[in-house]
C-alpha cells in the first residue's frame, strides 16, 4: 500500500510491454483466451462509501497503489476491446496462508502468529476496531479458478473475498485462543496509517452456486499458519524481522 511511485510506474510499464508483445506476436489474433488480473480490493475501495463493498460499489482509491490498480484494470479492459482475449479482474481481499513470505512486512495473520512463537512485539498502525476481510489462500484460489472458468461477461470484475468480515481485535483474540499465548502489541502511527480506512468489509454479489464452498474458518486458518511456522522455527528458519 505504501509503495513509491517509481515502483508502481515500472509495474504499469511492464504490463504495457506484456500487452504489446501479445499483440505483436499474433497470439491474440489467432487464438482466443482469458487473462486474469489480481487487483486489490483494499486498494481500490479504500475511499468508497457504504460498506460492505460489492462489485457494484464505485471504487475510490486514496493511495497511489490503489490508483495504479485501477489504471491497470483500465489498460486490460481496453486491450480486450481490440483483441481476441477475455479479461477477468479479481479484486482480492486480504489473503493469508501457511506459506506466506515471513520476510515481508504485510500479512497480519502471519505476523501475529509469528510473534507468539518468537515472543516478539507486533506494531499496530490502525485501531483494533478496524474491519477487514481475510480469505484463506486455498479458498481464494478456488474462487479465482471458478471465476475464470465460468464467467461469460466481458471484462467482468469480481470481489475475491471471504463470506465473513472481522475486526482486528477479533483476529487478535482468535490468535490468542489458538496459540494459547499472549500477544505483545505496540500501537504507532506512520504514513501508511492514513491510507488504511477503518471499515473495509467485503462481499461478492457475483458468486454462483457452483462456486460456493465451505470456507476455511479464521480459527482453522490461524491454526494452519501456526503449524507451518512452528515447523519453520524447528528447522531454524524463523527469524525476528528487525525491519518490521
What is the mean predicted local confidence, pLDDT?
90
Question: In total, how many beta strands?
Answer: 9
How many individual helices? Answer: 8
Report the end-to-end length measured between terminal Cα atoms: 15 Å
CATH class type: Alpha Beta
Strand order of the largest sheet: 1-2-7
The H-and-E topology, N to C, reads as HHEHHEEHEEEHEEHEH
Uncertain segments are none
How many distinct domains?
Answer: 1
Describe the main β-sheet briefly: 3 strands, parallel
Work out the strand percent. 15-25%
Report on the structure:
- The chain has 244 residues and is an alpha/beta fold.
- The protein has a single domain, classed as Rossmann fold.
- 41% of the residues lie in helices and 16% in strands.
- It has eight helices and nine strands.
- A three-stranded parallel beta sheet has the order 1-2-7, with helices on both faces. A two-stranded parallel ribbon has the order 3-6. Strands 4-9 form a two-stranded parallel sheet.
- The protein is globular, with a radius of gyration of 19 Å.
